[in-house]
TrEMBL record:
Belongs to the zinc-containing alcohol dehydrogenase family. Class-IV subfamily. It comes from Selaginella moellendorffii. Its EC number is 1.1.1.1. It is found in: Cytoplasm. Homodimer. The lineage of its organism: Eukaryota, Viridiplantae, Streptophyta, Embryophyta, Tracheophyta. Keywords: Cytoplasm, Metal-binding, NAD, Oxidoreductase, Zinc. It is an enzyme of class 1 (oxidoreductase). GO terms for cellular component: cytosol. GO terms for molecular function: alcohol dehydrogenase (NAD+) activity; S-(hydroxymethyl)glutathione dehydrogenase [NAD(P)+] activity; zinc ion binding. GO terms for biological process: formaldehyde catabolic process. This is Alcohol dehydrogenase 1. Residues 21-150 form the Alcohol dehydrogenase-like N-terminal domain.
Amino acid sequence: MRKAKEPLLIEEIRVDPPHCGEVRVKILFTALCHSDVHYWEFEGIRALFPRILGHEAAGIVESVGDNVPDLAPGDHVLTLFTGECKSCQKCKSDKANVCSVLGINPFRGGMLEDGKTRFFSKDGEPIFHFIGTSTFSEYTVLHHGCVVKVNPAAPLDRICLLSCGLGSVWNVANVEPGSTVAIFGLGTLGMAVAEGARMAGASRVIGIDINRQKLELARMFGVTETLHPADHAMPLQQVVQGMTGGGTDYSFECVGNVDVIRSAIESCHDVRLNSLSSRELLSFSRLL
């Protein structure tokens, strides 16, 4: 893309070889995320053009630079827009999940090693990277911490969609067998959460969305019950609490809307903190 909100262009470009700590990947499949649309529309002094968007993709390693320990040409991989250097304090902590070095930075247009791009037009014009991935390209160059090797038997056309969701169920929430789960938003992320909850053994998975077609499709991914806001007079968190006898064990918000986040939190069963000696309301994050 060369300007905000203009049609994407298909052009022949030059993709330089990977430098130290980098990998060049042949992209076979890439998904379209709303974040791509957001930065396609983004204007202002921090906007970077020309630029190659895309961040959810699967492909095959074509070449590697020096000091890339775990990857080799021919490896099947997924791209990571939230990479891990595995060396910073946050990567070493089990209480943080955003790398200090390779965390999402939409305003960084070059590679970490030298701040420069690996993309150039046929005329030699530099083309900016996008959140360390830039997968709307036949070939792209990434920091090796933004690439993860996958089983070569996994279908690349499908796993490129699942950049998050499953890990939220298995590695963060640790959903247990027999538990109840609510999922607000049944896009690709929500469907991945549903599949992960099913595989984790959840007994009830309640899917919530404003699109009735998604509600029907969600049952194929493990959703056992569905809710549409228009079918209920009361807030959905109250509906979920009534269905589950006081709230679910786990709740996932897969929309990115503040009001929906509140509903998702309030659909879980209550947890007592302590008795208060005052009627004054305390300010704290229920996310804790």
